[in-house]
Write a structure and sequence with these properties.
It is built from 18 helices and 6 strands. It is mainly alpha-helical and 427 residues long. Bound molecules: heme C (4 copies).
Length: 427
């Protein structure tokens, strides 16, 4: 071979390698196009029927029944009380059913079972609780509109025969991604976003956001509302609540301190969208539903659990660090967040105690006591925004560490105020 031929041959080989690499990346990033469509009628809520149509995906979804401790020790999906490691929950939720029963979240296929067995339920529980537990929500909302939220929960639970499944996220006719929770659709509308026009990429997070988000019930009607009108940070949501939206003032009064508490509810979407991955356009599905291969067939994992259980598939597409290093990094983030979360929770509990103590003193300064209550309300909200979310800070470590720092400071201010309210004489 002449020199020219050699150079040409090298160039040809390099181009083949280069284009091969590009095509690999492009195909590697694209959703599987090999799925054979098996259209099902609207209103198909039976997991088995979906399973017969898409066996590979069903098999993967059924892994959501598996139970194990989390690889990092935080989270996991074994049904255990969160208060076991954070006894401060008993104090901070005193006066609310969450003090009775608050377990670690499990896989989607347990949603109806865990709802039925929850000790937080009472005969007076409302239909609103079923919103994020089953695809029958679509039928209830079609038949009753928001009135379903005020119907007796027991009645709806009898009708909802299946837990969260395919129909919560897919249109049965064409498998397009969809959202069915009206509270999410309305909240996005108020922010000027029409979710029916969302791109596939956006839908890969919206399908999760329709449930993994903060909400409250409108007094008397129990309509579910997401508090997003002013924005999604803890501060913006706190300001939203301060305006007493729809007459809503608090979830409960803490029994000892009479603080009107806002109970945080899993703000995973809020946390993520403002974090590094959310900002960089990495969707929930990128990490929680990575592409897998089985006998040459490519599919997106429907085992919606800790991504660390399949860390190579979940993170390896973007991070080429050694797997152990990446794991250690996640663990370090969570250790740091946990340390502050625990401190914040304990300090908030002390604030409740200080207020309770001050309020028994004769001649207590009521104005100062109210100030202590307001500071505790905010401190608890900031703590619970992090504590109620599910990733122990991983989705947004910068924001969560800041939020917990503020919570601790506010709780100390509340304790000072409570002491001042009690008066120097009575200390
Ligand atoms: C919580 C939401 C959610 C649930 C529940 C869910 N899926 Fe999916 N599914 C998705 C997302 C998101 C994608 C797209 C993943 C991607 O782009 O990689 C997807 C992709 C698919 C695909 C590939 C076709 C396509 O459009 O990419 C099939 C087939 C599928 N799912 C079937 C099912 C079946 C069957 C069930 C129930 C056993 C189910 N899914 C449950 C969210 C869900
Ligand atoms: C219809 C509401 C709904 C949708 C949609 C939904 N989730 Fe969930 N998710 C839940 C509920 C409720 C639980 C807790 C179930 C239980 O504890 O019984 C849960 C639990 C989880 C868990 C904990 C399971 C474990 O193994 O630790 C993960 C992770 C999770 N969801 C991720 C996702 C992701 C990612 C998406 C979107 C692809 C999504 N969820 C969509 C309601 C939903
Ligand atoms: C960059 C990857 C990544 C993205 C994007 C991401 N997560 Fe996570 N998520 C994680 C990791 C890592 C954990 C911690 C897992 C552990 O502790 O074992 C986690 C934990 C969770 C958990 C708790 C699981 C448990 O063990 O109880 C839920 C629920 C969850 N994520 C939902 C979501 C939702 C909803 C979105 C989108 C709004 C999202 N995640 C986006 C990586 C991600
Ligand atoms: C689709 C691409 C993508 C995926 C998948 C992804 N990441 Fe990232 N990750 C990024 C980008 C982009 C950044 C920000 C730029 C940077 O620092 O490299 C980032 C940053 C990080 C950081 C540093 C920022 C911080 O919060 O400290 C960690 C740690 C991290 N990712 C862990 C993970 C883990 C663990 C997973 C899997 C569960 C994962 N990532 C999945 C794209 C991704």
């Amino acid at each position: 071979m002449s020199r020219i031929q050699k150079i040409l041959a090298t160039l040809v080989v390099l181009s083949i390698l280069f284009f091969g690499f590009i095509m690999f990346r492009v195909w590697g990033a694209k959703p599987p196009s090999t799925v054979k469509l098996s259209p099902l009628p609207q209103g198909t809520y039976d997991t088995e029927i979906w399973g017969q149509a898409y066996p590979l995906y069903y098999q993967s979804y059924k892994k959501n029944l598996e139970m194990a401790a989390s690889p990092t020790g935080y989270g996991g999906n074994i049904k255990q009380q969160k208060a076991e490691i954070q006894p401060e929950l008993y104090t901070n939720f005193k006066g609310n059913p969450f003090a009775k029963d608050y377990t670690e979240d499990r896989g989607h296929l347990y949603s109806m079972e865990d709802l039925r067995e929850s000790k937080r339920l009472s005969p007076a529980s409302k239909g609103a609780c079923i919103t994020c537990k089953t695809p029958y929500l679509e039928q209830f909302y079609k038949e009753m509109g928001w009135k379903y939220a005020n119907a007796p929960l027991t009645e709806l639970m009898d009708k909802a025969k299946h837990p969260i499944n395919c129909a919560n996220c897919h249109n049965p006719e064409n498998m397009a991604l969809r959202v069915i929770n009206p509270a999410f659709i309305e909240a996005m509308q108020r922010r000027g976003i029409d979710v029916s026009k969302a791109s596939r990429e956006e839908m890969r997070s919206y399908v999760c956001a329709q449930c993994h988000a903060e909400y409250y019930f409108v007094p008397n009607t129990y309509q579910v509302v997401f508090p997003w009108d002013k924005g999604l940070t803890p501060q913006q949501m706190y300001e939203y609540y301060a305006a007493k939206p729809n007459g809503f003032t608090q979830d409960f009064f803490q029994t000892d301190s009479k603080v009107p508490v806002l109970k945080g509810q899993h703000p995973d979407y809020e946390e993520w969208q403002n974090g590094i991955h959310g900002k960089m356009g990495v969707s929930c599905a990128d990490c929680h539903m990575p592409y897998m291969r089985q006998q040459g067939r490519k599919y997106s994992s429907h085992w919606m659990t800790s991504p660390l259980k399949q860390i190579n598939e979940a993170c390896g597409t973007c991070h080429n660090q050694v797997q152990d290093k990446l794991y250690e990094q996640v663990k370090a983030i969570q250790d740091n967040v946990w340390q502050l979360q625990h401190t914040a929770g304990l300090t908030v509990a002390q604030a409740h105690a200080a207020i309770a103590n001050a309020s028994t003193k004769p001649g207590v300064n009521q104005q100062e006591l109210e100030k202590a209550r307001e500071l505790t309300r905010k401190a608890q909200w900031f703590w619970d925004y992090v504590a109620a979310a599910n990733s122990m800070g991983f989705h947004n470590q910068t924001q969560e560490l800041n939020t917990l720092g503020q919570s601790i400071d506010l709780a100390h201010q509340a304790i000072d105020s409570a002491k001042k309210a009690a008066g120097a004489n009575s200390l």
